[in-house]
Amino acid sequence: MTILIKGGTVVGPSGPYSGDVLVDGETIAAIFAPGQAPEGPEIIDATGKYVIPGAIDAHTHMQMPFGGTEASDTFDTGTRAAAIGGTTTIIDFAIQRYGEVVQDGLAAWHAKTADQCHIDYGFHMIIGGVDDDSLKAMDQLVASEGITSFKLFMAYPGVFYSDDGQILRAMQKARENGAMIMMHAENGPAIDVLVKQALERGETDPVFHGLTRPQELEAEATSRAIWLAAVAADCPLYIVHLSASKALEQVRNARDLGRNVFAETCPQYLYLTLEDQLGAPGFEGAKWVCSTPLRSGKESHRADLWQGLRTNDLSVVSTDHCPFCMKDQKEMGIGDFSKIPNGIGSVEHRVDLLYQGVVEKKLSLARWVETIATTPARMFGMYPKKGIIAPGSDADIVLYDPNGRTRISVETHHMNMDYSAWEGWEIDGKVDTVLSRGEVIASGGEYKGRKGRGKYVPRSLSDYLV
Ligand code: URP
Ligand code: ZN
Ligand code: ZN
Asked: Domain Amidohydrolase-related, which positions (predicted)?
């Protein structure tokens, strides 16, 4: 089937232009100057809309077992919500826990996703136990499984934590096979000391989750990861969910030295604060318990992160979508903040939330598209199949209405959460129509796709490495 997306403003990494996009089957066949396209195909009128590549969320945790419970979005509910919000590909984290065989962990994630996803998906692999076997498995995943990025944790001792020696070994392996090391950069052992001391003082409210994870412990871990990667012959390193000015400074310094160091941030760090959200009265703040934590609004974190996005010291905006309901899940931490499952859900809202950066003149249109679509595709080896409106690319396309309005609420969202971290937000812009590999899967806020249509995307090495 051929479709012509006519009359819109195509936005790519090099900026906006007027063009008509011809879709043939699952791919983009051609882009015509206005009025030059052949007659015949079904027309989608894009007048007044931006035509952007389907967004890619490079950091999600659907139905992830974590914190004594499981993330509340399944691959079914989470990818459906993502689709409605303009995201057409996710990269989720398959998990190898300490003592498990890496390939078994991966097989478990393939089993969870089989026939469940509404959009395309890839996997990163969490290595929870670095040893001879898991290092060997990294080679096999890169060579044969389309998995070219591995997440390690400097936080969560006793759960996913790797010590510096293990991190160095994994980085050396990644340097050999070309993979990207993704790092959760917080000093877990030091945080555990602060958490214990806080609880002993009777400081049990959600806000102490943030106060026991000061930015210095994010900056220190970020710096340590950067220097360990240097020892591993400049192994490619990607810092996940970067939240704080001092951590950003470490990344900026490394990049100024020409290092293979990259970082992402997430919408929650660009907009929300420790005082206003995490510090909400009573147990309300539990809604925003995530790690790294929300930072103080009295400091310059949010402004610094927006600047980092403009200067490319922050390359990507992902959600770190890891939703938990208040009832029975976040509530596990009443009386002890350390038992609140860590995570926020935003997979449905990232495209809209980042568009506010354009509205507020913090980002150009091109940079909006780069940070939510093109760069994640290039960073994680899916480009040019994904992340760009170009002939030959998958027809993953979003029509975005800059004159629309979006109101975010638990009453209307599609994520499997009993609250919204963005309740009542009224924002400019609206996802109008979403195509995934040539199929209209959402239009006017109505979902038209189906469970199981999403395909696994095996990934190549990152484009950003020479
Ligand atoms: O709070 C978070 N970020 N939960 C998900 C796990 C992780 O560290 O990304
Ligand atoms: Zn993490
Ligand atoms: Zn995460």
From this structure: 50-440
Does the pTM of the predicted model rise above 0.90?
Answer: yes
Given ligand 1 and candidates 184, 320, 330, which is best to mutate, with the most ligand atoms within 8 Å of its CB?
320
Q: How far is the CA of 141 from the centre of ligand 3 (A)?
A: 20
Structural domain boundaries of the chain? Answer: 54-379
Q: What is the pLDDT along the chain (466 residues), one digit of tens a residue?
A: 899 999 999 998 889 999 999 999 999 999 999 999 998 889 999 999 999 999 999 999 999 999 999 999 999 999 999 999 999 999 999 999 999 999 999 999 999 999 999 999 999 999 999 999 999 999 999 999 999 999 999 999 999 999 999 999 999 999 999 999 999 999 999 999 999 999 999 999 999 999 999 999 999 999 999 999 999 999 999 999 999 999 999 999 999 999 999 999 999 999 999 999 999 999 999 999 999 999 999 999 999 999 999 999 999 999 999 999 999 999 999 999 999 999 999 999 999 999 999 999 999 999 999 999 999 999 999 999 999 999 999 999 999 999 999 999 999 999 999 999 999 999 999 999 999 999 999 999 899 999 999 999 999 999 998 7
How far does the chain reach from its first CA to its final CA, in angstroms?
Answer: 39
For ligand 1, atom 4, the nearest C-alpha belongs to: 343
Ligand 1 centroid – CA 194 distance (Å): 19
Instruction: Kindly report the CATH class assigned to 54-379.
Output: alpha beta
Nearest atom in ligand 1 to 61's CA = 5
